[in-house]
Design brief:
two-stranded antiparallel sheet; 5-stranded mixed β-sheet; Lysozyme; single chain
Amino acid sequence: MTEKITRRTALELIGHEAIVLEWYKDSKGIGTWGIGVTSASGHNVERYKDKPQTVARCIEIFLWLLETKYAPDVRAAFRTELTEAQFAAALSFHYNTGAIKTASWVRLFNEGKVTAARSNFMSWRYPAEILSRREKECRLFFDGKWSNDGKVIIYPVLKPSYQPAFRKASRVDITHDLGDLP
C-alpha cells in the first residue's frame, strides 16, 4: 500500500494532540513530551525536563514515531488501499488507542460492512473527553471531512508540579514547522 504521512495528515493528528515543548507529567503522572510522546515509545523524553525544544523538533520526533511505530500497523490492518483521509483517521485512532490490530471496526470495514464499522468506531468513546476526537476521526474516515486548520494548542509547563498550564495555552499556526512533507 502507498499510504503516506502527508502535511494534511500530520496537521490533523497534531491538532488532536496539542504540543508541550518540554517534559511534563500527563494526567496519569507519566513523563511525557512534545506531541504525547513517552519514553515507552523508544525515545527518551526525560532529556527534555527543564529543556524546552522547538516546535519543529517536537514534530520531527512525532513524525518519526508515526512512520516507524504506528503507520506500519495501520497499513497492515486494511485489505484495500486507503484514501488520504482514511489513512489519517486510522493513524490518529491507532496513535491514541494502540488498537488498530484488534478494533472490531477495522474487521467490519475489511468485510465491507461499512455501516457497522462506522457504528463500532464510535464505541471507542472512553474516557468521555475523547468523544470529540473520536467523532472527528469517524467523520474523516467515513466522510472524508478534515477538521484541522493548521493551528494547534501549545501548553507551557507549570513548575514545580510539571503539569501543563492549561489556562496559559496558545493556538499557533505550525504549517511552516512541517518541513518538506508532501
